[in-house]
Amino acid sequence: MLVGGKGTRLRPLTVNTPKPMLEVAGVPFLSHMLTRAKAAGITRIVFATAYKPEVFEEYYGDGSRFGLEMEYVQEVEPLDTGGAIRNVADRLQSAPGDPVMIFNSDILSGMDLAALLAEHETRGADVTLHLTKVADPRAFGLVPTDRDGWVTAFREKPQRPEDIVTDQINAGCYVFRREIIDGIPTGRRVSVERETFPGLLAAGSKVLGVVEQSYWLDLGTPGAFVRGSADLVLGAITSPAVPESTCPRYPEALVLDGAEVAESVKLGAGSTVGQGARVAADAAVYGSVLGAGSSVGEGAVLRDSIVGRGARIGAGTVLEGVVVGDGASVGAGNELLQGVRVSCDAVIPDSSVRFSHDPS
Ligand code: GTP
């Protein structure tokens, strides 16, 4: 499980918490992946850590609480994706020909993991990649395949129209034959996407792509993060790790332990109200994630926004597509729109200007 990235696209949420540990639908995102891995028959997880490594072990420990065996390997310097995989090789118990599954830890996916593994084995591949199709592949690594599914090229984040040769992209979940991992260079940064995969193709290795069109979302950006969380709450993708809501009067929201939501609040579109958070009268919260201990003032309106732990949103303030860092305070009567990010512990005073808005 690759968990060492800095999660720069999700700042300031990732200033205090590594991306895989950010709460999505009530639990650290990683818990959704781990329960799915377990359901697919995986029994042992090795975490490749770099950024804020201690957070993972503190939360998951030896894994027994989750019915899994867990180990942690910390990089002294971040080794990038391929280097991170190589760095855990001596903790793998698999024989040279055995399959090892590798996960990017920011992907929410309904991929049938057992089927991916079975395909890898029956086709005799050296490496098998889960591929998905997206409408706009420019932000991803393209992976064209031949008629039989064998990968013909890797094109990272193509920008020129002529480079967009397929809509199949690397979905961030792989099966490697153990001995392929042992062949990755040690002690330096290696990108699995830019170096290892193209190198394997050039060396004539059997690299298979399995296109599967189940639910798939890369939670790396704020927009995708709120969408993924809402999809879990609304059941567009199911995860056994989603906790029960404590507030049945909002069927389209997840309200966690100790949260207080006033009677007149409008709450829905897959929102999550974190542990001990408070939402005051007449506020409206749609498609948003409110962190533990945060508060939303009277009459505030939040859409598709993320409010960090302990952050405070003032009365009548409007947030749309905004990220508020942990401990920040946005004063009353402000209007913050698409793409605004408020740093952790920042203080925005009350606004003296009146904005009109429609809380419906
Ligand atoms: P951004 O900075 O927002 O791009 O996020 P990120 O740092 O997570 O990078 P990216 O999404 O490209 O990373 C893909 C996967 O590889 C994620 O699961 C990361 O945690 C992981 N990853 C990236 N770099 C490293 C690294 O140097 N070491 C380890 N162990 N994992 C890494």
From TrEMBL:
Residues 252-332 form the Mannose-1-phosphate guanyltransferase C-terminal domain. It holds the Pfam family NTP_transferase. Belongs to the transferase hexapeptide repeat family. PANTHER family: SUGAR-1-PHOSPHATE GUANYL TRANSFERASE. It comes from Actinospica durhamensis. This is NDP-sugar synthase. It comes from the Bacteria. Residues 2-231 form the Nucleotidyl transferase domain. Gene3D superfamilies: Hexapeptide repeat proteins, Spore Coat Polysaccharide Biosynthesis Protein SpsA, Chain A. InterPro entries: GMPPB_C (IPR056729), Mannose-1P_guanyltransferase (IPR050486), NTP_transferase_dom (IPR005835), Nucleotide-diphossugar_trans (IPR029044), Trimer_LpxA-like_sf (IPR011004).
